[in-house]
């Protein structure tokens, strides 16, 4: 009796009010809504003793760096776990294995640098939604995640949110081990290209969100990869599209694709002439694929050939002058000779003229045999 009284007394003395009603320290428990909340309490680890009726566990805004298999004891009724903004850097193996009915897991706003290959595996693959937005610390975390998706047995995952992770590159085939995926959210990253194989093995995709990335265009292999997804909703808006001739295939694809694209948000960002113009329906003229470029090019080659011709002619002229200069003595001789020869001929004509105009010599002309030189000697 005495012992019992002492126990009761100590129990009342040391039992925190929440714990006495079966709620962990620093948390609020709502039996009616089956919810436990531990919000912004600077907790260093996931609280133990979460009541068995809990279906939704919200632990946000704390200071929990590492979580592992010891963090969650068996809680068959828990379906939603929200662990956003806790500065979690490490996910150890089998962290959630005890939560056999977990279907929604939110790890957004953390700084995951280390993810064990089996961090996400849960017997029975109950997980349907995984939110990892703004949570991957660097590229190592992304490759870790790719491995965890492969080894996690996430056969039932329907929705994966990877937005806001500054992703520049997706490992090929990263999603081929989550074959049921219906929604893949990759918005607000730094993706510049899709490659063949990026979305391989995804046969049930319904929505692909690639908005707010760094795509300037989509090349042929990317377009084939997107087209292979079939009649899905593909969001491509708010990317810095450059509407030069290289974007032609993308425009053709937008014109003809069977995918449901948010075409109204897919607009040119540059060059200046077409800023904010919708890509779909653009003509090849509008994106500068046809000529005006060509005449300019021929003009230029024409100009170049004129310049070249001028140079060649100038060179030939200079060589000619140089040869003349070298030959100047011979030239002088030739000029004097030519001059003398000319003078002789001219003098000959001079005589002929004098004879022709002399009336006394008229008869001689009639008799023929007229040679100015002879006549001169006769006179
Ligand atoms: C889960 O919920 C059911 C029904 O509310 C309850 O009977 C059961 O005891 C709960 N499980 C645990 C481990 O508390
Ligand atoms: C939890 O999982 C067990 C075994 O898979 C199942 O029998 C039970 O109905 C589930 N409980 C809830 C609340 O989903
Ligand atoms: C990512 O961060 C972790 C932890 O700081 C570090 O060990 C790793 O080398 C980093 N990886 C890269 C690619 O920077
Ligand atoms: C984009 O992601 C960054 C973190 O990478 C985040 O700070 C920012 O709020 C996000 N923006 C939008 C519009 O979601
Ligand atoms: C896209 O379609 C418009 C009209 O629907 C057409 O005028 C244009 O040439 C097409 N663009 C390309 C690049 O096929």
Automatic annotation (TrEMBL):
SUPFAM superfamilies registered for this protein in UniProt: L domain-like (SSF52058)
Coiled coil location: none
The keyword NAD belongs to this UniProt entry's keyword annotation: no
Domain LRRCT: 239-290
Keyword terms of this UniProt record: Leucine-rich repeat, Membrane, Repeat, Signal, Transmembrane, Transmembrane helix
Regions crossing the membrane: 306-326
Record's signal peptide: 1-22
Keyword Transmembrane helix: yes
Source superkingdom: Eukaryota
GO biological process: negative regulation of canonical Wnt signaling pathway
A Gene Ontology cellular-component term: plasma membrane
Protein name per the record: Trophoblast glycoprotein 1a
Species of origin: Nothobranchius furzeri
């Amino acid at each position: 009796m005495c012992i019992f009284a002492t126990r009761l007394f100590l129990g009342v003395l040391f039992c925190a009010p929440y714990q006495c009603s079966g709620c962990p320290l620093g948390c609020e428990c709502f039996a009616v809504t089956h919810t436990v909340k531990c919000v912004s309490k600077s907790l260093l680890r996931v609280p133990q003793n979460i009541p068995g009726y809990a279906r939704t566990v919200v632990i946000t805004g704390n200071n929990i760096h590492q979580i592992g298999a010891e963090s969650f004891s068996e809680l068959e009724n828990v379906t939603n776990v929200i662990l956003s903004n806790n500065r979690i850097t490490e996910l150890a193996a089998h962290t959630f294995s005890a939560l056999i009915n977990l279907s929604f897991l939110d790890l957004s706003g953390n700084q995951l640098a280390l993810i064990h290959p089996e961090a996400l595996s849960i017997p029975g693959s109950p997980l349907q939604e995984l939110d990892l937005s703004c949570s991957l610390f660097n590229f190592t975390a992304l490759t870790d995640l790719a491995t965890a998706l492969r080894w996690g047995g996430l056969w039932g995952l329907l929705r994966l949110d990877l937005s806001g992770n500054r992703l520049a590159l997706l490992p090929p085939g990263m999603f081929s081990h989550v074959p049921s995926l219906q929604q893949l959210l990759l918005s607000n990253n730094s993706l510049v290209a899709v490659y063949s194989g990026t979305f391989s093995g995804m046969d049930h995709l319904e929505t692909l969100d690639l908005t707010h990335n760094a795509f300037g265009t989509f090349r042929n292999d990317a377009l084939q990869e997107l087209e292979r997804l079939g009649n899905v909703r593909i969001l491509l808006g708010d990317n810095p599209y450059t509407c030069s001739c290289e974007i032609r295939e993308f425009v053709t694809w937008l014109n003809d694709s069977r995918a449901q694209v948010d075409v109204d948000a897919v607009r040119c960002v540059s060059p200046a002439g077409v800023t904010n113009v919708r890509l779909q329906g653009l003509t090849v003229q509008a994106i500068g694929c046809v000529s005006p470029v060509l005449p300019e090019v021929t003009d230029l080659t024409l100009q170049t050939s004129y310049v070249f011709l001028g140079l060649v002619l100038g060179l030939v002229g200079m060589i000619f002058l140089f040869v003349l200069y070298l030959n100047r003595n011979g030239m002088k001789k030739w000029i004097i000779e030519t001059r003398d020869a000319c003078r002789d001929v001219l003098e000959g004509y001079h005589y002929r003229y004098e004879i022709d105009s002399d009336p006394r010599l008229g008869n001689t002309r009639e008799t023929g045999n007229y040679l100015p030189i002879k006549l001169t000697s006769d006179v």
